[in-house]
Amino acid sequence: MAILVTGGAGYIGSHIVRAFRLAGLDPVVVDDLSSGHREFVPDDVPLIELNIVRTKKLTEALRDHSIEAVVHLAGFKYAGVSVQRPLHTYQQNVQGTVSLLRAMAEHDIDKIVFSSSAAVYGTPDVDLVTERTATHPESPYGESKLVGEWVIAAQGRATGLRHTSLRYFNVVGSATDELYDSSPHNLFPLVIRALTEGHRPKIFGDDYPTPDGTCVRDYVHVADLADAHVVATQKLLAGQELEPVYNLGSGDGVSVRQIMTAVARATGIDFEPVVAPRRPGDPARIVASGQLAARDLSWTMRHTLDEMVESAWNARHQS
């Protein structure tokens, strides 16, 4: 039974491919390798090098594989950069999703798990985000993810497409040393890169209304996230009903300074981070409940903060 994973050569996508293989399912990857890595895709997993906005080519590519369901991660994922590149963001994320849905309809593929984002919430005014929290995206990236959810839901109402959207927060760590986060914008790779190059990592603001003055965020291990995708896909394949949206959150945030302390423990490097001024738009706290996903998707936090940090550090130093 083949599962199409768009963006399957990326950091999160490649972990999902790995999780499908461990579950006995056969992944097929579509990725244009703009931010993914060819070496992240196992040699025996089909890799279709293609941008999903090319509907005709995508439809032709799907013809050669007996795809039962789709996990859709492909897209432009940098929220900050999306402010400078809104048209590109909308083209890749919204037009890309529409293109994928057209290709799926052409081949009667009627099940999809969508990679959404906590960016749909913007700056929430609650201590714990739930699926009922109002959506107020503050970047073209967040907007495009919310529109993606809407488009998929509309296709579901029109055609019976079975779907669910998983909203991620801060995804970190590694399940294997061969797969790692290479983002130029995410906290973990930025901290690791700074230490590797002999620099002191930065904390942007230490005067927030939080226990230690630094921003509090929701960090989840990429392997736990990947497992939730497998369960969601399996339930759709089994004909079980799922909610339209799930938060994959920890329910308990971690501060940036706590991250720095954990990095020092994992690496054995004794350092004091540089405290820089606040960045505009950084909320003090964003933490989400994962209770709904725990109920339906066997979602649980199986990794400690130290395990998240150690696995991220080991993967970057083995790569």
From TrEMBL:
Listed GO biological process terms: galactose catabolic process via UDP-galactose, Leloir pathway
Residue ranges of every copy of the NAD-dependent epimerase/dehydratase domain listed in the record: 3-249
Gene3D superfamilies in the cross-refs: NAD(P)-binding Rossmann-like Domain (3.40.50.720), UDP-galactose 4-epimerase, domain 1 (3.90.25.10)
Keywords from the named record: Carbohydrate metabolism, Isomerase, NAD
Enzyme Commission number(s) of this protein: 5.1.3.2
GO molecular function, one term: UDP-glucose 4-epimerase activity
Cofactor(s) essential for the protein: NAD(+)
Pathway it works in: Carbohydrate metabolism; galactose metabolism
Any coiled-coil regions, as ranges: none
Swiss-Prot/TrEMBL catalytic activity: UDP-alpha-D-glucose = UDP-alpha-D-galactose
NCBIfam families: galE
Sequence similarity: Belongs to the NAD(P)-dependent epimerase/dehydratase family.
Protein name: UDP-glucose 4-epimerase
Gene that this sequence comes from: galE
